[in-house]
Amino acid sequence: MSAPGAKAPKSAAVLTQLLGEALTLAVGCAGAGAFMLAHIPGGAMSGSVVAVALLSVFGRATPIGGPLRVFGMASIGVAIGSVVGPDTLEHVAAYPASLALMAVCVVAMTLSSAAVWRWLMGWPPSMALLASVPGSMGYIVSVSMSMGADAARVAVVQMSRVVFLVTILPFIIAWEQGGGAGLSAPAASVASDLTVLALMAAGVAAGSLFTRLGAPGGMILGAIVASASLHILGVAEGRAPNWLMNMGQILLGAWVGSRFVDFDWSLFFRICLGAAMAVGAALAVSILFAWTASEWLGVPFAAALIGYSPGGQEAMVALALVLDADPIFVATHHLGRYFLINLSLPFIVAWMRRSEGASPGDT
Q: Is 165 exposed, middle or buried (0-12, 13-18, 19+ CB in 10 A)?
């Protein structure tokens, strides 16, 4: 039987967590509001990321809990699914060729980034390659540890890449579009509050199922499928309201920013120049391939650039929505990148182990 006072510390911990999350979200909202008032493309998410990351510098950011992450990803998925229509799949004929081009782009991005770490920063070959693979961060960090590489440095590079891309990509797309990047006014009517509630319930249910089945980005992917299906079947009508999209982006941005809690900022600043150059090299490659897809396959440049960029799936899909790029195209290509990396990485790791003299059975 537990002591009468046992519940008090637990309640205090819960209260501290809730207050910390409230502060983190408030800062995220303030950052999003500032960026949106400044008319920065994709301001809701990028402003939240930057503000919460800065808050973590002072050790005051609290990691966003599971329920808020679920709500954020489900709301983004529902918003994306609500724009699905006949014109959404306009470029579906280009998907096979574009996915093949994306596979080549992933290899080129990885090699260009690894070249920066290997030849300009002097990192060992295996560590340079692991720091440059665009995705599967958890697996990559665990492999780094098993191979005796500096896992902390690899993790810093992997985490910083998404922040760089979320803040830089909107400006590149805005420049390419002549300053016109941004979510265009929807032609369809806005969904009612009751419809939004039903879509969110269906989205969370489908997202939970996809997550249990091990689908990458299961929550956001399941919500997209549920919302799109209900719209295609005519059960739901109207696009998700702007407040739902903005709230989802703020929550996702705060989640990304809060991942820098307990972050070794001294290590980050020591390798910041290398990280910036490596991300710049990978981004330059993705711009080249996006231009190629735009010229040869007729894919809009914004959709191709976000789809080919080495960022996190959830963040890139949300960015596509707010920048009026084709979110289904982007989601499909990031899903393809996920499978490409996870299917090929074990073979790459086995080759690295052999080349560096490690036993294949090492863990």
A: buried
